[in-house]
Write a structure and sequence with these properties.
With 343 residues, the protein is of the alpha+beta class. It has two domains: 148 residues, PurM-like, N-terminal domain (60s Ribosomal Protein L30, Chain: A, 2-Layer Sandwich); 166 residues, Phosphoribosyl-aminoimidazole Synthetase, Chain A, domain 2 (Alpha-Beta Complex), CATH 3.90.650. Helices cover 33% and strands 24% of the residues. It has eleven helices and twelve strands. The strands form three sheets. It has a six-stranded mixed beta sheet with strand order 8-10-5-11-9-12. A four-stranded mixed beta sheet has the order 1-4-2-3, covered by helices on one side. A hairpin with a 4-residue loop joins strand 6 and strand 7. Helix 3 runs parallel beside helix 4 and helix 7 runs antiparallel to helix 11. The longest helix is centred in the middle third of the chain and has 18 residues. The chain starts with 12 loop residues before the first helix and ends with a strand.
């Protein structure tokens, strides 16, 4: 009787070993002095840094949604890991946490070592941008769950903050100012609608050059999610930031109210937000109302902060030192909407 091996079932252990060897150089360059384990252990070990009076760990997990479909169709895998890190790290920064370490999970139909290396290289780049150590991960080869060219990626970030400095939004009050930091584009949410508009409703191709974008459609859609650590964290540590929202799935309408106390509303003025051509084109293609767009996408603003009027100048200056511009989007008023968008 013929022997049936694990490889016959579609799982190539040798390819897994090769993937691990390929990613080592990318992973190790993210290690800080607090990493006290090497690759290959059952758990990643990280020594908590000193300098915190009452340290609290802050965690976040996320993926990149169907942006992966674009990555896989283009056979370009070296930036999707940046997106994965960004989606997690930007979330924990909203609580005032400094990123410490990151773990990734990749599920695939076939373990292609070259492709896995590209993916993890992107994860490592995202970790470097956020000063987080990539201390562990998992690559699961899952035949029959995915085709050979399909994969999914998710991540998990852990950061640290002093308990008394955690940002909750509870001190936001009427008259406070709402600031925004621009996005790099669509980021990593809403791609089911993006794909429907460009490829089902309209007949665009990924390699099609779009004059308004100054790039191909594929390049524009795969622009990595901006990581706000270097631009925003200095402002967070040196100033009294009352509330922060990371604008992802659900756009302005879902994410801004998450930091606003009951009885208050963030008045946002849309004419202050620079219009990105990719959002303008999608709105025309889908004949979408402004509310539809702001309920789905970041519309050009990826990070929103609330500060007291007297702190605006110093916060703007801090963010400028991180090589980012700041836009005064509006102000906090009495009301129950959480957020209200004005022309």
């Amino acid at each position: 009787m013929k022997k049936i091996t694990y490889k016959d079932a579609g799982v190539n252990i040798e390819a897994g070993y090769e993937s691990v060897e390929r990613i080592k150089k990318h992973v190790k360059k993210t290690f800080s002095k607090n990493v006290i384990s090497d690759l290959g252990g059952f758990g990643g070990l990280f020594a908590l840094p000193s300098g915190y009076n009452n340290p609290v760990l802050v965690s976040g997990t996320d993926g990149v949604g169907t942006k992966l479909v674009i990555s896989q169709k283009m056979d370009k895998h070296n930036t999707i890991g940046i997106d994965c890190v960004a989606m997690c790290v930007n979330d924990i920064i909203c609580q005032g946490a400094k990123p410490l370490f990151f773990l990734d999970y990749i599920a695939c139909g076939k373990n292609n070592p070259e492709r896995i290396e590209q993916i993890v290289a992107g994860v490592a780049e995202g970790c470097l941008q956020s000063e987080a150590s990539l201390i562990g991960g998992e690559t699961a080869e899952m035949p029959d769950m995915y085709t050979e060219d399909e994969y999914d990626i998710a991540g998990f970030a852990v950061g640290i903050a002093d308990r008394e400095k955690i940002i909750t939004g509870k001190n936001i009050k009427e008259g406070d100012v709402v600031l925004g930091i621009p996005s790099s584009g669509i980021h990593s949410n809403g791609f089911s609608l993006v794909r429907k508009l460009f490829f089902n409703h309209s007949q665009f191709s990924l390699d099609q050059y779009i004059q308004e974008f100054g790039a191909t459609l594929g390049e524009t859609l795969l622009t990595p999610t901006k990581i706000y650590y270097h631009s925003a964290f200095k402002a967070i540590t040196e100033n009294n930031i009352k509330g922060i929202s990371h604008i992802t799935g659900g756009g302005f309408y879902e994410n801004i109210p998450r930091m606003i106390p009951q009885g208050l509303t963030a008045n946002i003025y849309k004419n202050r937000i620079p219009k990105l051509p990719v959002f303008e084109m999608m709105q025309k293609l889908g004949n979408l109302e402004d509310d539809d767009m702001y309920n789905t996408f970041n519309m050009g603003i990826g990070f929103v902060m609330v500060v007291s009027p007297e702190d605006v100048d110093t916060v703007v200056s801090s963010i400028k030192q991180g090589k980012e511009e700041t836009i005064i989007l509006g102000e906090i008023a009495n009301g129950d909407q959480g957020v209200a968008l004005w022309p």
